[in-house]
Specification:
Blueprint: E1 12-16, H1 18-28, H2 30-46, E2 57-60, E3 65-72, E4 76-84, E5 98-104, E6 110-115, H3 117-135, E7 142-146, H4 152-163, E8 167-171, H5 175-185, E9 191-194, H6 198-202, E10 207-210, E11 217-221, E12 231-234, E13 243-245, H7 247-251, E14 254-257, H8 260-266, E15 279-280, H9 281-285, E16 299-302, H10 307-321, E17 328-331, H11 342-351
Parallel strand pairs: 1-6, 7-8, 7-10, 8-9, 10-12, 11-13, 12-16, 14-15, 14-16
Antiparallel strand pairs: 1-17, 2-3, 3-4, 4-5, 5-6
Organism: Parasulfitobacter algicola
Protein name: Ornithine cyclodeaminase
Pfam families: OCD_Mu_crystall (PF02423)
Length: about 350
């Protein structure tokens, strides 16, 4: 491993605000951003064995959860702070907010600080589409999205950009959420059907994304709603006590996950025995095991989000900043002329 040389101005850390993140995404273009981000995510899944891996560190309360998601490839360290508070929507707040840091393992100094509320939505959608490349039926063009909240449009755009999805069937128990989603995606070259039930949304769909927010054991899809050959992208169940699929669907599906020790705690498979067989996405991407093998196969990506995906997103943003001015320089780290004289630095600031 090459030892990095500490750069000049090492105390200055690039910071990407929400405003700058929106400008960066729009400058690149949403679909291009998703396609390029997907390449980083897929590349890091190919390097899976290099990464430190641990289930996220979670602090649960009756109102929600606050989590830290760390990982390192030995040269660069990254982590994300993220919350999940479903009640927030009723109070006019975001269900999920986040920020992230990328650091140099050699010095331990941060190299990037960025908002990750928008970036998490993008990386979640890009990861879903990467998995579907290997698991969805060939030439699928119709996707049902059940749960039309903050993540829904990102999912639609990622599946369009990466898989060529053209038709959307939208459903949410809150009709205004469906109206919002359909409005935001108008003019994006989709054929959109607004559905009145989840069963209606499933009609003709080869892919279904479930992305609901309620923190409870829910049954968004029942077994009779899922025909043979469908790919299920289950991303709403992402903490203990929160699921979306009936257990019988799991028992007849080939299940693919990011990191089993985390997914068994947080994903749909928390409903199953600890030894129930699952397949790891990184092994599919590297060709060690097969993804979809038959037209009649029901595949399930039980996605809870994993730290390597955030790491990929942070890497991508850091690389793209070189081409832009969409960041601020934060004087974030104390950097005295003499490293041992931190107190002297404080005294000199008082007299300045």
């Amino acid at each position: 491993m090459n030892t990095p040389t500490p750069p000049a101005g090492i105390n200055i850390v690039p910071f990407v605000s929400v405003d700058h993140m929106m400008k960066l995404v729009n400058h690149i273009g949403v679909e291009t951003f998703l396609r390029e981000l997907a390449v980083y995510i897929e590349d890091d899944f190919r390097r899976w064995e290099l990464f430190d891996k641990t289930p996220r560190v979670a602090s649960h309360s009756k109102d929600g959860v606050i989590e830290l998601m760390p990982t390192s490839d030995g040269e660069t360290y990254g982590f994300k702070y993220v919350n999940g508070h479903p009640k927030n929507t009723k109070e006019g707040l975001q269900t999920v907010t986040a920020f992230g840091v990328l650091s140099d393992v050699y010095t331990g100094y941060p190299a990037l600080l960025t908002e990750m509320t928008i970036l998490t939505a993008l990386r979640t959608a890009a990861t879903s589409a990467v998995a579907a490349k290997y698991l969805a039926p060939e030439e699928a063009d119709t996707m049902a999205i059940i749960g039309n909240g903050a993540q829904s449009e990102f999912q639609a755009m990622a599946f369009k950009a990466i898989l060529g999805i053209k038709k959307l069937r939208l459903y949410d128990i809150d009709q205004s959420a469906t109206e919002k989603c359909a409005f935001n995606l108008s003019g994006k070259s989709f054929d959109i059907t607004k559905c009145t039930t989840s069963q209606d949304a499933m009609e003709g769909a080869q892919i279904v994304t479930t992305v609901t927010a309620d923190k409870q054991y829910a049954t968004i899809l029942t077994d009779n709603m899922v025909g043979a050959g469908i790919h299920i992208n289950a991303i709403g169940g992402d903490c203990p006590g929160k699921t979306e699929l009936h257990k019988d669907i799991l028992l007849r599906s080939d299940i693919f996950v990011e990191y089993p020790p985390q997914t068994r705690i947080e994903g749909e498979i928390q409903q199953l025995n600890d030894d129930h067989p699952v397949k790891e996405l990184w092994q599919v991407i590297t060709g060690q095991i097969d993804g979809r093998t038959a037209a009649t196969q029901t595949t399930l990506f039980d996605s809870v989000g994993f730290a390597t995906e955030d790491f990929s997103a942070l890497r991508y943003v850091k690389d793209k900043l070189v081409e832009t001015e969409f960041y601020e320089e934060l004087d974030m780290l104390a950097d005295p002329d003499e490293p041992r004289d931190l107190f002297g630095m404080l005294l000199r600031a008082e007299s300045a």
